[in-house]
Amino acid sequence: MRKKELTEKQKQLVELRKVSETFPTREINLEKAIEEAETEEEKKVVEEEVEKYEADKAENEAAIAETETEIAGIEAEIAEIERSAPVGTPAEQPKNTEEKRGNIMPMNTRRFFGMTPETRDAFLAREDVRDFIEAIREIKTRGITNGSLSVPEVMLELLRDNMEQYSKLTKYVTLKPIGGTARENIMGAAPEGVWMEAEGELNELDMSLNQVEVDGYMVGGIIWIHNNLLKDSDLALGSEIMDQLGKAIGKGIDRALLYGTGTKMPVGIVTRLAQTAAPSNWPTFAPAWTDLHTTNVKKLNINGTTGAAFYASLIEALGVAAPNYSDGKAFWVMNRKTHINLMTKALAFDAAAALIAGVNNQMPIIGGSIEEIELVGDNEIIGGFGSVYILAEREGSALEKSEHARFAQNQTGFKGYARYDGMPVFGEAFVMVSFDNTDAATTSTFETDYANTELGALAVTSVAGTASGDTLVTVAGAEASGTTLGYKVLGKAAAVKSGDPSTGYTAFTTPDDITAATGKIITVVEFDAAGRAIKVGTCSVVAKA
To answer: Which residues are in coiled coils (predicted)?
Structure first.
């Protein structure tokens, strides 16, 4: 009963917060109205609206505070009940009810996000979690109507708490939950105290406060769940969905934290360091933009050295990252090959003539955890003091059902996504080093957003070809390089969507003779390097008699 009440209160809180998001817009509109009001009658109307706005806002804030207090109380009661519940004895546990699937670990022995069995069972017994899993299990047939399933907040909280299982970098940055577009306050350098006589007057200290504006951009994609799992236990299904969702989000976040372009995604550390001019959307109240592309992006020629000679130069370069404004904890990102290279260069013999490696998961001398992420280039190191990177997490993650199942693979698709934004507030806290005398890669290729990209147009013409039954097809408007062309000849134009694969198309180069009957429709598609459709054009075939 208390769990049901908790669910209702949580829903109520979400609605109250949605209402609170409308107040900034109302305030802006009222400010404009005040400026534009000229007559006494107009001013009176505006004053009444201001009073109503203030009353609504105060009422909303009070309701949110009251609801949050009630939720905290209910959660405390539930936690106390769960703590005092007797732990089941072995005799009370089912006898080996697991399904054996080859050498896979039995399902009832798997850990569910680090929970004890009792906590796990209580989690899965929650009404909101149970309803969510049952709604997914009901998806058994093709032709499912599109719709959205809201992931219960308690599942999202669990995913957030375990995000470092999937994202290697979120544990180093400052994560800020937000309800929408928000301005986050960032303290500047702490002022130094002034010495004085014991009875002297205290001096006022200057304290700088900066703001950055953050929004919420989506990261995610299709998650394919095997249909057998839809019939499996709540534990199996819940684990699989959350695991796949976590992996999708985690990989996207890590790439964005390093290389995010700032366009519909966070600004990455490397992107900030490589900037040669202040971007047009640099926040007005953010710290002053500084050019770091030469001071904090280093190219060293030390890969041929080892030991002290190598590390003296490397540590000096990494030391450019300034710890000001941070919590003083550094991290360093590289791929596994680079990590092993660092370990090899640190090999030495100790006093007992035993071979040892001076680098494990900490950077020698200056400290800081080493994280392996394969998208970083060979012999490149990215890092610094992550606490000055603000990663805003917006509310409202969801899991959406696919329209059609993968019948051949016996799978059903779900679109999982979450919303994030962020930026390194103080770029001086980070550095990128390439130590093999090559320029460090300052960009990374993100997965193309085909679903939200319109197909380009190709101009296709057909004239009589060289031989009887042939047509000479010419295509204009294609990219100069890096793409391929393919065609289909049908009774009507082929249906093509952005991102469609090249399967089923015949490759050709333009201009070229192909065999086709007059009056048929030829559809020519341009595919990118990944073999996905980016442009399309059609025309009616004219063949030589």
So the answer is: 30-84
Which amino acid type is present at position 288? Answer: A
Strand (E) or helix (H) holding 420: strand 411-424
Helix and strand counts by DSSP (H, E) for the chain: 11, 22
Amino acid at 128: D
Q: Which residues pair with 362 in a beta bridge?
A: 369
Write out pLDDT tens, residues 101-118: 333 333 333 455 666 777
pLDDT at 140 over 60: no
How do the domains of the chain map onto residue ranges? Answer: 2-83, 132-187+213-447, 453-540
Prior bond of 511 cis (ω within 30°): yes
For the chain, how big is the Rg over CA atoms in Å?
A: 30
User: What is the pTM for the complete model shown?
Assistant: 0.58
Pairing of strands 470-476, 512-515: antiparallel
For residues 380 and 433, the answer to whether their CB atoms sit within 8 Å is yes
Mean pLDDT of 256-274: 91
What tokens does 238 get? Answer: 């819940």
Contact (Cβ atoms closer than 8 angstroms) between residue 250 and residue 167: yes
Place of tokens 């708490």: 161
Are the beta carbons of 521 and 487 closer than 8 angstroms? Answer: no
Instruction: Give tens-digit pLDDT for 197-240.
Output: 556 665 555 444 444 444 545 565 555 555 665 555 555 565 66
**Is the domain covering 132-187+213-447 a CATH 3.90.1690 domain?**
yes
Give mean pLDDT, residues 62-88: 73
**pLDDT band for position 531 (50/70/90)?**
very high
Mean local confidence (pLDDT), 28-48: 84
CATH number of the domain located at residue range(s) 453-540 in this protein:
2.60.40
Tell me which residue has tokens 């660092």.
342
| CA 237 – CA 75 distance, rounded (Å) | 25
- Cα(186)–Cα(426) distance, rounded to whole angstroms? 10
| Of 263-272, 314-323, 398-407, 535-544, the least confident | 398-407
CB atoms within 10 A of CB 541: 19
